[in-house]
Design brief:
CATH architecture of the largest domain in chain A: Orthogonal Bundle
CATH class of the largest domain in chain A: Mainly Alpha
Keywords (chains A, B): DNA-binding
InterPro entries (chains A, B): Homeodomain-like_sf, HTH-type_Tx_Regulator, HTH_TetR, KstR2_TetR_C, Tet_transcr_reg_TetR-rel_C_sf
GO molecular function, one term (chains A, B): DNA binding
Low-confidence stretches of chain A: 1-6
Largest interface: A-B, 39 and 39 residues
Mean pLDDT of chain A: 89
Distance between the termini of chain A: 77 Å
Number of helices of chain A: 9
Structural class of chain A: mainly alpha
CATH superfamily of the largest domain in chain A: Tetracycline Repressor, domain 2
Radius of gyration of chain A: 20 Å
Helix content of chain A: over 70%
Largest sheet of chain A: none
Strand content of chain A: under 5%
Number of strands of chain A: 0
Oligomer: homodimer
Protein name (chains A, B): AcrR family transcriptional regulator
Chain lengths: ~200, ~200
DNA sequence: TAACTTTGTAAGTGATTACTTACATCAAGG
DNA sequence: CCTTGATGTAAGTAATCACTTACAAAGTTA
């Protein structure tokens, strides 16, 4: 009988970086941020602690890389929706629903974002977080303004305030997800929020 | 010439507990959660690290005591407003404005709440956080329902969803406060949010 | 005043942290 | 085949963590 012993195979740095980032999110969601140590990280991937530092200079750099991924992937996706040629109402629906989808799919990320915001005084990190927050706000504002310019929505509505209120949707969804371990929230959630938004926008 | 050397005077445990809790919030706001160590805590108060453990069994117990203060003080205040005999519209205004006030006055607390929620798997802590969140939701729902029963507000509005949307207000205010170091937000903020809420509630 | 409890300190404790070092092994190119 | 650079490991490192211990001194009560 031949026994194959699985040994850690060599991978290029890009692949490893992806694995490490994914493991960070997994740990945060399953065990909480407190258990996000480089030791646990290495154990989760099945490599040595030293290997991690081959692919990232510091632990903080891993966090930064993840947050920059959010900036490109998530915000990029929202930008596409907001600047598409669809009707404003349809854009708004896609915008809200894909936000809700992203946040429920990537529960670890959102905990990471808000916790890092309060933990760190790292300015680079804070400024990226500010960008993510403000980009969402200005993209949703663009949709509101397009609908108002078109004449379908109320031009009296204070867009800035509405965008602020909108931002509460993803954020409080997060809180619920954290506190209720993701059990709540069916896929109707975004449609419910959409209908409230539409009532606010009605002339 | 006589020189008086100021030495740490003995205080009763209750006084010290108050000082310790206040110092925790100060540290969180000025230096971030990362620097909330028992060493820094002792230094900030001007006592020894050992003395802290005379008044609280563990560091976690300090956090718990603070969160329980929020439950009694903040939620207690909101409960008084929600169950008062004022008009629903007036209650809603007081409710939103005193929430905004509390959160801006106690910036350290809110960072603590949300960070602990994602950090810890401590069930006692999580359950208290859930209570704080759900109490706010059900108290604001009560105001909505009273206004609907009275006939002033739209009975078609889905109260549960509206309460969820409402919860976004304090939560996203927090994010702004964290990211912008409390520079934004004048005292009109709650009135702006109130007027959006009122449009949603209009028949 | 004597006995006892409470509040304080200084100097530890072992555990854990992010990160480093010395060295092995693998893949690729000349 | 041999060199070279990238990727891996085991076993460290000093620093920091929450918390303890042994003891002193102050306050209280008898």
């Amino acid at each position: 009988m031949i026994t194959y012993i699985k040994v850690m195979e060599r991978q290029n740095s890009e692949t490893r970086q992806g694995q490490i980032k994914q493991a960070v999110l997994d740990i945060i969601y399953t065990d909480g941020l407190k258990n996000l140590s480089t030791r646990n990280l290495a154990k989760r991937i099945g490599m040595s602690e030293g290997a991690i530092f081959r692919h990232f200079a510091t632990k903080q750099d891993i966090i930064l890389a993840i947050i920059q991924d959010v900036q490109t992937d998530f915000i990029g996706q929202l930008r596409k929706i907001a600047t598409s040629s669809l009707e404003p109402k349809e854009r708004l629906q896609k915008f809200i629903c894909s936000t809700v989808q992203y946040l429920t799919d990537n529960k670890g990320i959102t905990m990471l974002l808000f916790s890092e915001a309060s933990h760190n005084n790292d300015e680079q990190l804070k400024s990226t977080l500010r960008q993510i927050f403000n980009n969402q706000k200005s993209l949703v504002s663009k949709i509101f303004l397009d609908g108002i310019a078109e004449g379908t929505w109320d031009e009296e509505i204070p867009v800035e305030n509405l965008a602020m209120l909108y931002m509460g949707i993803p954020v409080s969804l997060n809180i619920e997800l954290i506190l209720n371990r993701g059990e709540s929230q069916n896929d109707n959630f975004c449609k419910k929020m959409l209908s409230l938004m539409l009532k606010l926008l009605k002339r």
